[in-house]
């Protein structure tokens, strides 16, 4: 499958968050300014081992001052999933913005993909975690 | 199956079971991993909400269509929304894995991806171009409406199939595992059962071992001798009461201590230690398991003493142990030394005495011959009456002196090998010559001298004629001397052996009608220098050496001598000498004609059979009943007397040796009382065959004699015999029975009397009886109780004769005779052959029983 990556402007809003009716948006630059986490893992949606780089979801919540509640993540395709805050660790999941060293296109699960290091923790290979692995993520709210 | 085999078998079973269990468990373990992996695969989500994603393909497709329709319907189309929807659908399609789709769905997916790919340049291109293309793109997409649905359905169906396959696989693995678990459970249960059985067996074995150990301990403690048990290093591990008594150590103080150091003096210790070292090196023993050894041993107080030791080794788990049986020989050694000394002294004294007599006699004979010759010369001269009387006295005394000297020299000669030189000898003429030689002496004393010979004619023997001459001269001259005006007879009879050709027995009987010898003296008359009546001796003249000479020569010739005498009636000396015939071509006695069988018709008589042996009684009853006789049985002398007082019999057959009362006693009682059987013929019914016994029977009032074993012919003759003639009943020829183990006539008689079943029972009775008597004989023999031996041998001779034994019967009869003569050598020899003869008899009967018909026709 041939694919051309769409150029993403630095000013483009990548992620919009809503906490307590306060909306905030993050550009790619802003996201990349947050703490970085990297890992390699296989996923059930891809072939071969993938390396991911992104900001831990915990770091974003930290940035938003969220300590409890449930995170509701939504995708460009309107897929939505709830993740309880206390099931989010320091390092997993991450909001990946790089896959195998490059940016992710919208045409291939990008530009933001919430991924877990599935291989390093077998318990992460479950339906719940897979359902939380939301790609094309663009919105995030906390209830 | 032996115990050891069982052990190996069960060991094998155990290995098989254990191996199988381990294998099964390994399989279960392996399978568990496989199943776990499979379950994990099922437990781990291989995908996210597949059905959602699948249906989402259609949703995204429709959303893109709607966006396109909206865009084409307006002049200011929202191109960003078009691009976003395109990307979302595109992204959605790329997620499906090929293998999870049906073929149709896969084809549709490829087609949709191709059409999307073809529009990427437009989507990514400038807005104007995109706007131009929108209607076209919308049209293309619309055509694939069915494809989007088929991709969704195909993905769901494919995933479902994969899951079903996975479940099937897991179920299959679980089933295999269940079977293996069930099998393992069976094996484990079997193993538990097996182990329990083994445990029970081991418990039983250990209880048995404990009991055995206690028993052994008791044996050890109770043993008379000292028993010292030591381990392989020589340390004491057990020490019984006997050992405490011998060595003076207490068991508790010696246990664990070094045995050679405590119980052996230094000079023995080294040898024993070397021996033990050798044993450890090579397992070869020089001292143990090799009979008794005499050691010097040491008591607790340091005293060294002679001991007899027997050491055995036993192999234990922790190595060999040595069991030493010790006996203190101090007293025995002392006694032995004393006895040896006494014996040596006695032998020396006897030799000295004998040598002295020989020398003196020899030295005296020469001058005495001179004196006598001179006296005979004087006799020829003229002498006064008084001088002649003196001369007669001198000659008489000189003759006596010379004969004394000759006797002493004869004794000396009996030790001389030349006197026993073997020569071919005609005993028939030797006997005649001896009698002729002594005739003048007999005539002088008015004694009639008779000679009777039997079996000697035409036979030459290889024997020592000078020894025979000495024997006959002494016996005959003694007999003549003691029977003035009486009668002396020599009866010489040769009986060839039935077993060994060219061998036989010469019997010499010298009887006189002289003064007789008192029973108390009969044993010592064969001693040297015994003269029974000094007064009488003076009259007859004698050294008392005559019978001593006879005894010596008889012994040297391998024979036996026996004396029977009644005071005032006379004396009979009986000699049995083994003989070898010089002429081996001599013909041997032919077997007697076999008896004719068949019923014999006789006048029925009423007969009382007295016998203490049940077997004998029942056979006699059968035989007599078959011969048409009426039979009453009595099991002893007392019963016989009682029955004889109640009823008159035509004939009484009376056993002699019976425990409650002997046959002769019972006969006397019947004869003396007022019973209706006072004059009934009473026939002695016994295995005794000695002439002196017959005499005893006659004196007891018996009318005749029937010899055991009884065969039909002899029995019928006995019943039919006329007992009015006083001697007739005893006129029984010495039975010259057939030779061999079994008397065939007797066998066929028993077979026809008893029939197979009763015969077997009869023989079993006999064997029981004979086993008991045999044991009694051996015990009596071992304790040298000749009376007991004689009684037992006699009883067994009777019963074995009744079952047709020939060889055993003769052996027992000889044994009985040997007991009478107190001939220990003969008794020992016969006892040595007893078991063999008995076994042969039993074997012969077993063969008869195994094949009775063959036996009947063989005759």
Automatic annotation (TrEMBL), chain A:
UniProt-listed Pfam families: Oxidored_molyb
Xref: Gene3D superfamilies: Oxidoreductase, molybdopterin-binding domain (3.90.420.10)
Top-level division of the source organism's lineage: Bacteria
Domain Oxidoreductase molybdopterin-binding residue range list: 45-117
Full protein name: Oxidoreductase molybdopterin-binding domain-containing protein
UniProt source species: Salipiger aestuarii
Upper lineage: Bacteria, Pseudomonadati, Pseudomonadota, Alphaproteobacteria, Rhodobacterales
TrEMBL record, chain B:
Protein keywords: ATP-binding, Cell inner membrane, Cell membrane, Kinase, Membrane, Nucleotide-binding, Phosphoprotein, Transferase, Transmembrane, Transmembrane helix, Two-component regulatory system
Signal peptide: none
Pfam families referenced in this protein's UniProt entry, alphabetically: HATPase_c (PF02518), HisKA (PF00512), Hpt (PF01627), PAS_9 (PF13426), Response_reg (PF00072)
Residue ranges annotated for the Histidine kinase domain, each copy included: 359-581
Positions of modified residues (4-aspartylphosphate): 655
Location of the PAS domain: 212-283
GO cellular component terms attached to this protein's record: plasma membrane
EC number per UniProt: 2.7.13.3
Keyword Membrane on entry: yes
Gene Ontology MF term list: histidine phosphotransfer kinase activity; phosphorelay sensor kinase activity
Compartments in which it is found: Cell inner membrane
Domain HPt positions: 755-855
Reactions that this protein is recorded to catalyse: ATP + protein L-histidine = ADP + protein N-phospho-L-histidine
Segments crossing the lipid bilayer: 15-35, 170-195
SUPFAM superfamilies, alphabetized: ATPase domain of HSP90 chaperone/DNA topoisomerase II/histidine kinase, CheY-like, Histidine-containing phosphotransfer domain, HPT domain, Homodimeric domain of signal transducing histidine kinase, PYP-like sensor domain (PAS domain)
First-listed, main subcellular location of the protein, grouped into a coarse class: membrane
Bilayer topology term: Multi-pass membrane protein
Domain Response regulatory: 606-723
Keyword ATP-binding appears in the UniProt entry: yes
InterPro entries associated with the record: CheY-like_superfamily, HATPase_C_sf, HATPase_dom, His_kinase_dom, HisK_dim/P_dom, HisK_dim/P_sf, HPT_dom_sf, PAS
Phosphohistidine carried by residues: 794
UniProt protein name: histidine kinase
